[in-house]
């Protein structure tokens, strides 16, 4: 008798790509396809759909525009719960889903009740600090297991959730893509002797682009030969055009890109100004790519970075220290900086190994089914 594979569904909205999506895709690639049948599902055919197709996946598509928690108000969210039960429950039943693995909070909240009704097992991958929001807290009663990506995230959980949670570090790797390196160099780098400081993140509130801009302002006055590159989606329009004009080509906004390896290879320093992050994938990716990193000492950053060991931390709000340290790191002795970079790379390879992550998540699956 052939043993049935465990069917695991990963639902996403589909209109964005962030760390949660990349980590989930990394996990799926490493899961044993003899034991698990993976069903990737999208609610919108956007940027994530295109990316998945290029990666060789064939995602399911279940159209919906009303997501629980997307808008404020009891009535609209109750309506969302009801509509999504009607849409999602038949999909779970028809495809004999054993486990629903929620990674995307936008889609995730809409899947909790339908999954519970279906009797499929429910895993909630908590990647951010637990929100202080009533509906989120109520819905967090239902998952059978909660996976936390850091100690910082675990500490934020309500006490009743901690009893069914496990800490598993995210998988991290960096895909090398040299196809358009020459094109990017010609477009963005005129002077090969300049020092380059990088901001790499989607520009949302907690990424604190304003801190990066303030730091650039101070550094530019001290050293006019340094350039600043901002790479990431500006969908919320937090980065203003007039700000870029003020710096007269000292700050270059690149936009969103999938070729992050190029920016790590060709910049001299990565600044991570985000705060209250459950886990910052960019830090780990930067360490693997051997770029010096300075991050704000907030959230789980200090679980990854140790000062003068594999990177540097700066207290939140201390812009003066950030600018002085940035200039110091850019001028460090090559032997010392290489030691830091090798230590950082070794640290990430060991802690955030994709195969280790997949084994631990597989164990969670086996315990549930």
Could you characterize what this model shows?
It is a single chain. By secondary structure, the chain is α/β, with parallel strands linked by helices. The chain has 2 domains: 6-171 and 353-368, Glycogen Phosphorylase B (Rossmann fold, 3-Layer(aba) Sandwich), CATH 3.40.50.2000; 181-351, 3-Layer(aba) Sandwich (Rossmann fold). It is built from 16 helices and 13 strands. A 7-stranded parallel sheet has the order 3-2-1-4-5-6-7, with helices on both faces. A 6-stranded parallel sheet has the order 10-9-8-11-12-13, with helices on both faces. Helix 13 links the parallel strand 12 (293-296) and strand 13 (312-314). Helix 9 (209-222) packs across helix 14 (319-330).
Regions with pLDDT < 50 over 5+ consecutive residues?
A: none
Name the shape in a single word: globular
Structural class assignment: alpha/beta
How much of the residues is beta strand, in percent? 15-25%
Total number of β-strand segments? 13
Q: What is this structure, in a nutshell?
A:
The protein is α/β, with parallel strands linked by helices and 369 residues long. 44% of the residues lie in helices and 17% in strands.
SSE layout:
Layout: E1 6-12, H1 19-30, E2 36-42, H2 47-54, E3 60-61, H3 74-94, E4 99-102, H4 105-118, E5 121-126, H5 134-139, E6 145-148, H6 151-156, H7 159-162, E7 165-167, H8 181-188, E8 195-200, H9 209-222, E9 226-231, H10 241-246, E10 251-255, H11 260-266, E11 269-272, H12 281-288, E12 293-296, H13 301-304, E13 312-314, H14 319-330, H15 334-351, H16 354-368
Parallel strand pairs: 1-2, 1-4, 2-3, 4-5, 5-6, 6-7, 8-9, 8-11, 9-10, 11-12, 12-13
Helix pairs in contact: 1-16, 3-4, 9-14, 12-15
């Amino acid at each position: 008798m052939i043993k049935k594979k465990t069917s695991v569904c990963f639902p996403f909205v589909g209109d964005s790509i962030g760390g949660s999506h990349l980590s989930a895709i990394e996990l799926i690639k490493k899961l044993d396809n003899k034991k698990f049948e993976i069903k990737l599902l999208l609610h919108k055919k956007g940027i994530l759909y295109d990316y998945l197709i290029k990666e060789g996946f064939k995602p399911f598509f279940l159209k919906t525009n009303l997501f629980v928690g997307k808008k404020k108000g009891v009535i609209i969210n109750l309506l969302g719960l009801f509509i999504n039960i009607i849409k999602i429950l038949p999909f779970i039943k028809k495809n004999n889903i054993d486990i629903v693995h929620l990674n995307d909070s936008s889609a995730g909240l809409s899947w909790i009740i339908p999954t519970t009704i279906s009797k499929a097992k429910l895993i909630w991958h908590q990647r951010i600090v637990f929100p202080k929001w009533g509906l989120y807290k109520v819905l967090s009663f239902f998952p059978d297991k909660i996976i936390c990506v850091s100690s910082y995230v675990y500490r934020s959980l309500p006490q009743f959730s901690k009893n069914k949670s496990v800490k598993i570090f995210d998988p991290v790797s960096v895909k090398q893509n040299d196809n358009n390196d020459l094109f990017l160099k010609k477009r963005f780098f005129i002077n090969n002797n300049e020092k380059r400081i990088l901001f790499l993140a989607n520009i949302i509130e907690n990424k604190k682009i304003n801190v990066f801009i303030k730091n650039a302002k101070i550094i530019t006055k001290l050293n006019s030969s340094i350039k600043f590159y901002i790479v990431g989606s500006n969908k919320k329009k937090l980065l203003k055009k007039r700000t870029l004009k003020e710096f007269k080509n000292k700050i270059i906004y690149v936009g969103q890109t999938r070729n992050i390896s190029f920016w790590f290879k060709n910049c001299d320093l990565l600044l991570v100004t985000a705060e209250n992050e459950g886990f910052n994938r960019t830090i780990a990716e930067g360490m693997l790519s051997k770029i010096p990193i300075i991050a704000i000492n907030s959230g789980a950053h200090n679980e990854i970075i140790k000062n003068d060991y594999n990177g540097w931390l700066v207290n939140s709000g201390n812009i003066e220290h950030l600018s002085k340290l940035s200039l110091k790191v850019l001028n460090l002795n090559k032997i010392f900086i290489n030691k830091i970079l090798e230590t950082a790379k070794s640290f990430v390879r060991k802690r955030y190994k994709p195969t280790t992550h997949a084994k631990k998540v597989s164990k969670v699956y086996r315990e549930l089914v």
